Amino acid sequence: MAGAAGAFALPFIARAQSADAIKIAHIQSHTGPSAPYGIRARDGARLAAEDINEAGGIAVGNQKHHIEITDADMANDARQAVTLFRQYAGDSSIVAVMGPVNSVGFLPCIPVAGQSEVPLVGNGSLAPVKEWSPWAYRENTISAVATQALLRTVVRHDKIKRLAVIFDQTQDNQVGDSIICKNLSGELGYELIASEAFRAGDQDFSPQIATIRRAKPDAIYVAAATGDGVKVVSQLRELGLKQSLLTGSGSFLDPVFWDNTNGRVKGDYTWIAQDFSSPSSELKSFIDRYNKKYTQQATLFSVNGYDSVMVVAEALKRAGAIERKALQKALSNLDMQTALGTKVKFANPPSGDNINGSAVIVKITGRSTYERL
Q1: pTM for this entry
Q2: How many CA atoms are closer than 13 Å to the CA of 107, on its beta-carbon side?
Q3: pLDDT score, position 282
Q4: Quick check: 142 pLDDT over 50?
Q5: Could you give phi then psi for residue 277, rounded to 5 degrees?
Q6: What's the CA gap between 286 and 298, in Å, rounded?
Q7: Which of 14, 155, 271, 362 would be 370's cystine partner, CB 3.0–4.6 Å?
Q8: Quick check: 18 pLDDT over 70?
């Protein structure tokens, strides 16, 4: 596995290597069901490095430094993510590791970060963490905030009384969303009348859909990564289920979702961390530059990738040294707002979650368009 991991490590260097470089590793899924998220986070991070370097680098101590990022593909495999993390931990020139966006990779890296004493900054994982390490953080909004906000808003808006869930049991993020749907049922006054599981890569969802159809829900929560979610939504609609659909992570806003379901997510609901329809000048500039530079259109995961670099950069400035322990200490009580408007605040221990995470609840109106609820 170690040999395989080495083959996946690809350097992204915004300028030539030199002695003043700050080296950061970035682990993402470039392939597999989470690739639409991982690729965007990777490209967002690359754009952040370019912006920092074109501005002359960041000042740590009395010297300016530029950023060098090494990218690696975990291929949606937890063991691959851990192997890559250990590989980077063994390279003393790397000051921190970012990612992965999927909890399949991020969660098992948390204890390894503590064992290796290497700062880990996640940029998309949503699932609950059973035990944090003071060496692990994630700058993004988590499901405990966003999925709850989505359910509270849509259940009230659509007067939902009967909810069904179909979820990927192999993905921690998706299992976490299914649990939130179950736990909020009593408080929000709906009945969870079906909870159907599948596995990543499945092709036929007709047994689960048949159960959901018999239960006669008012709405259906689709907890699936984009690749599998497209198949689930398509089959739901093809088999005649017209109920409103909900999902997390802004997935229904992804053009891939719209195109591959032939627009069948129109009128459905999701959440995003920032309002792309009325962005600040800085966020608009980022979106425009990102969409011009990269093939896949910017989503919240593109912002997460960008912001994770900015979090590491700001923490290094405050640390005053390019050293892992100093960086960890600076991250532990970091309170900042990124150039894109994301508020990030850590207090670890006890938790590496972003205390200031927020969510915007939206209804899909077209390809990458929406209205706020």
Answers
A1: 0.91
A2: 17
A3: 96
A4: yes
A5: -80, -20
A6: 9
A7: 362
A8: no
* Beta-bridge partners for 28: 73
Q: How many residues does the chain have?
A: 373
User: How many whole angstroms separate alpha carbon 304 and alpha carbon 120?
Assistant: 14
Cα 345 to Cα 354: distance, rounded to the nearest angstrom: 5
Alpha helix (H) ranges present in 159-295?
A: 172-183, 185-188, 206-215, 226-238, 255-260, 281-293
Helix axes 324-332, 300-319, angle to 10 degrees: 110
**DSSP 8-state secondary structure symbol assigned to residue 252:** G
Residues 34-49 as b/e (b if ≥16 CB within 10 A, e otherwise) read bbbbbbbbbbbbbbbb
**113: nearest Cα among 121, 124, 123:** 121
Per the CB < 8 A criterion, the answer to whether 304 and 41 are in contact is yes
Numbers of helices and strands, H then E, in the chain: 13, 16
| Residue 256: C-alpha distances to residues 44, 229, 250, 299, 300 (Å) | 18, 10, 12, 11, 14
Strands (E), the chain: 10-13, 21-28, 58-60, 63-73, 94-98, 120-122, 136-138, 162-168, 191-198, 219-223, 244-246, 269-272, 335-337, 343-345, 360-366, 369-372
Neighbour tally for 224: CB within 10 Å: 27
Q: What is the pLDDT of residues 255-308, one digit of tens each?
A: 999 999 999 999 999 999 999 999 999 999 999 999 999 999 999 999 999 999
Cβ atoms of residues 141 and 304 within 8 Å: no
Tokens 């996640």 — which residue?
122
CB of 136 within 8 A of CB of 122? yes
Six-digit token pair at 93? 């020139």
CA distance 219 to 37: 25
8 Å CB contact between 143 and 180: yes
Beta partners for residue 70, in sequence order: 11, 25
Distance CA 219, CA 161 (A): 9
Q: Give φ, ψ of 213 to 5 degrees.
A: -60, -45
